[in-house]
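FW: tagging you since you asked about this chain on Friday. Here's the raw sequence from the shared folder, copied in full. Didn't touch anything.
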Amino acid sequence: MANEEQVALLKQGRDIWNKWRQEHPEEKLDFYYADLNGANLRAVDLKNTYLTNAKMMGADLSGAQLQGADLTGVDLEGAKLIEADLSGVEFQGALMSGADLSSSNIEKASFLGSEIKGANFSGANGATASQLEEAIRDEATLLPEFLPEVLENEDLEEKTGFLSWVLSIFKK
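HL: got it, structure written out here
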C-alpha cells in the first residue's frame, strides 16, 4: 500500500513536495494503489517513483518529472501529462484512454498492453512505432505526426483483441 505520509505531502502541492524531494533525495517513494484522482501534480518531481496501480483519473501531471517511474497498471484516464518527462516510464497495463501526452518526452517508455484509446500523443518526443504498436488504441488516438502509417489502422482489430486479453490479466 501507499506511504500515506508521502501521499499527504504530495497533495499539499508542488512547492512543498519538490522542496521535500530535494531534502530527501534517497527516500523510496511508494504510491502503490494511492488515490490521486483529480490531483494537481503539475511540475512535481516524481522521478523513480512507484505508482503501481495508483488511481490518477483526471490528474494534472503537466510538466511533471516522471523519469524512470513505475506506472504499471495505473489508471490515468483523462489525465493531463502535457510536456511531462516520461522517459523510461513503465506504463505496462495502464489505462490511459483520453489522456493528453502532447509534447511529452516518451523516449524508452513502455506501453505494453496499455489502453491508449483516444489519447493524444501529438508532438510527443522520442516515440517509436514499436513502443505504441504494443498498446491498445483506436482511430481516435492521436499519434505523433512522424510515426509511420503502419500504426494507423493496419491490424488494429487483431492487436486490440490480443492486447485487451493481456490487459485483463494485469487487472486480476
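FW: The radius of gyration is 15 Å.
HL: agreed, and Confidence is low (pLDDT under 50) at residues 153-157.
FW: great, closing this out.
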